[in-house]
Amino acid sequence: MKPLLSLLHRLCLAALLGAAATAWAGPPDLRAAQDAGFQHGLERVVQQLGLGDEVAAGHLSLALVDVSKGAEPRLAMLNGDRMMYAASMPKLAILLGAFVEAEAGRLALDPEHLQALTNMIRRSSNEDATRVLHWVGGERLIDILESARFRFYEPGGAGGLWVGKAYDDAPAYRRDPVRNLSHGATAFQVARLYYLLESGALFGPALTAQMKEVLSKPGIQHKFVKGLEERPGVEIFRKSGTWRDTHADSALVEYGDRRYVMVGIAEHPQGGEWLRRLAAPLHDLVVAPVREARLAP
């Protein structure tokens, strides 16, 4: 009887996953949303802050996406496809993997699991990140990132989000093919993850809301979060990372009827300060044109 029940369970699960795959129309192409005016604005902000040479040297990568109009995003980026070590920011990939497994019925989003996910994101707990990674499976996570459904890592292209090592003392189990990194990211693919989350293209409404809840209420007040203190009224969904001279931050920001994503990865001792200084001007780049339009006679 048990083998029959096991077979029925596998058949039911396969049917559910098959239905999900049939319904999946594929994610929107964010690359097609590159906007010349928006790009010029990003470049102007970087130059005004004296960071142009750092971008030219490859020490800073940025991506900015205005998602206020949902299906009509605007993208600007600098070194957006540069694969960089990103410290704890790729814990976003582990979060994604956990929700994929929850969607498939293989991981319960019960209080124990949700607490570990929340600790991993808000307080960047390495212990909880390692625990969640083991729940998902290291190789399974890489399969998810490279899957046709998500394409968050392109092994034959620029790379993307990568986790090939637990956040403990164990050695890397698989380094990324582009730059041999254990925890890596491109600013573009991190921004794309937030865009797909906000547009509802990652998961259904219930899982989308739950994932945003985990990303909310940042527990570490630095970089983008510190910089956006100058702009009261924002709500931030965020994951950052720091290791030695690597400073990374990523955020989905809600401000009134505006929604935008900003991602920065810096390889420099002052990289965290760069990201703090960038936050408010990048916010204004998205919000100010609307404000000016409203004030125009």
Description:
With 297 residues, the chain is an alpha+beta fold. It has a single domain (33-295), classed as 3-Layer(aba) Sandwich (Beta-lactamase). The chain has 11 helices and 10 strands. The strands form 3 sheets. It has a 5-stranded antiparallel sheet with strand order 2-1-10-9-8, with helices on both faces. Strands 3-7-6 form a 3-stranded antiparallel sheet. Helix 5 (111-122) packs across helix 6. The protein starts with a helix and ends with a helix. Mean pLDDT is 90; it is low at 1-24 and 290-297.
The level of helicity is 40-55%
Distance between the termini: 77 Å
Main sheet overview = 5 strands, antiparallel
Strand order of the largest sheet: 2-1-10-9-8
Find the CATH topology: Beta-lactamase
Question: Given the helix and strand composition, which structural class is it?
Answer: alpha+beta
**Name given to the CATH homologous superfamily:** DD-peptidase/beta-lactamase superfamily
| Low-pLDDT regions | 1-24, 290-297
What is the domain total for the residues? Answer: 1
Q: Beta-sheet strand percentage?
A: 15-25%
Q: What's the overall geometry?
A: globular
By DSSP, the count of extended strands is 10
Helix and strand run: HHHEEEHHHHEEEEHHHEEEH
CATH architecture: 3-Layer(aba) Sandwich
Briefly, what CATH class?
A: Alpha Beta
Task: Using the CA coordinates, give the radius of gyration.
Answer: 19 Å
Arithmetic mean pLDDT: 90
Number of helices: 11
